Amino acid sequence: MDISLNFKEIITATMILFAVIDIIGSIPIIIDLRQKVGHIQSEKASIVAMLIMITFLFVGAEILKLIGIDVYSFAVAGAFVLLFLALEMILGIQLYKEESPETASVVPLAFPLIAGAGTMTTILSLKAEFQTVNIIVAIILNILFVYIVLKSSKKIERIIGKGGINVIRKIFGVILLAIAVKLFTSNIQGLFN
């Protein structure tokens, strides 16, 4: 097993996870949570989200095997999930509705806001294409960024403004749409081989 770091894979996986986690687009949700519950536990939420993602990276495929699903099928299904997430970001619509949280500790920050269904699907889709060590580095880089955003969400909102957040969200939506198409085309062939 080759465990060498590949800079291109790390950057690509980091950008894909960054687009899926969409922590910048979640700033309004984070600010709303902070107003509702007072304090957000940034460290705890970041660490728990990282542990969830890394654990799923290692045991997610085994769980799929247990229920009889191969990684290619999951990656193709993941491409559809990413497609719908991208459409939400680009069109400003909400296809998936969540209940309003009462606390902002691990739930809903670590799960499902940071390490949600889209992130889990993406991690397994990445595993079909990239080396595990590069995905772990990408997860850690994203969690560091998530932590910074959680710690300074009020300051970021003042600097960027609501219009800026919307622009960033749409840009990453288009990137995510392209990624979904690439995941679909590269994994659909594996289903038939």
Outline type: globular
The average pLDDT is 85
Uncertain regions spanning at least 5 consecutive residues: none
Q: What fraction strand? A: under 5%
Our measurement of the CA-to-CA distance between the termini, rounded to an integer number of angstroms, reads 23 Å
Q: Please report the total strand number as a whole number.
A: 0
Tell me about the biggest sheet?
A: none
* Multimerization status: single chain
Instruction: Spell the H/E element sequence.
Output: HHHHHHHH
Integer count of domains: 1
User: Measured on Cα atoms, how large is the radius of gyration?
Assistant: 17 Å
Helix fraction, binned, reads over 70%
**Which class best fits the helix and strand makeup?**
mainly alpha
Number of helices: 8
Structure description:
This protein has 193 residues and is mainly α. The protein has one domain. The chain is 79% helix and 0% strand. The chain is built from eight helices and no strands. Helix 4 crosses helix 6. The radius of gyration is 17 Å and the shape is globular.
Short characterization:
The chain is mainly alpha-helical and 193 residues long. The chain has helices spanning 7-21, 27-37, 42-66, 71-91, 106-114, 117-127, 132-151, 153-192.
What attributes characterize this protein structure?
mainly alpha, 193 residues, 8 helices
Layout: helices, strands, pairs:
Elements lengths: L6 H15 L5 H11 L4 H25 L4 H21 L14 H9 L2 H11 L4 H20 L1 H40 L1
Helix pairs in contact: 1-6, 1-7, 2-8, 3-5, 3-6, 3-7, 4-6, 4-8
